[in-house]
Amino acid sequence: MHLSLDGFVAGPNGEMDWIKADEEIFDYVGKRISEGDTALYGRVTYEMMENYWPTAADKPTASRHDIEHSKWYSKVHKVVLSKTMKDAGLTNTTIISDHLDERINEIKQSGAATRGHGSKDILLFGSPTATHSLIQQNLIDGYWLFVNPIILGRGIPLFADIKEKIKLQLLNTKQFTCGVTELNYIVEKP
Fold this sequence. Notes:
With 190 residues, the protein is α/β, with parallel strands linked by helices. The chain has helices at 23-33, 43-50, 53-56, 64-75, 100-110, 128-136, and strands at residues 2-4, 8-10, 38-42, 77-81, 93-96, 122-124, 142-148, 156-157, 168-175, 181-187.
């Protein structure tokens, strides 16, 4: 997830025009997400993704990144957290509208055989409201953050309404040429 140095994932009106993403970041992220078999979204982010990625590779101006991500998006299992969407007719998509902890843990368990040493991740994309819900129920196992060299001053925070401390262990960092710094943490379980 991209965030500002002061912890915002979007501006006050959802603006993301401040996010720096170049070929170096696209290549790095592409390699990592190709290892994931499940993508998790909130409704708003999912609808934005669905409006672009299914046909992104077909556009005459499609970049290598667009083509690769479009192929990945078409085959990855999508999980959407939404109280208003229904999954009727959605291909390769599961809607979770209630019992979040049970449903997420079922998905984690169903992929347990494919995870392990060759780890298949459930990757959460954007979706601050969904992220807040998952954090509150202690369902996030790690944070893969891209800190952008900007201070927004206000906006939608990544961390909101945290009730208890969340202890993290730093796995690695990476500095990109454009000034973005990746921070990759796992959550320390009690």
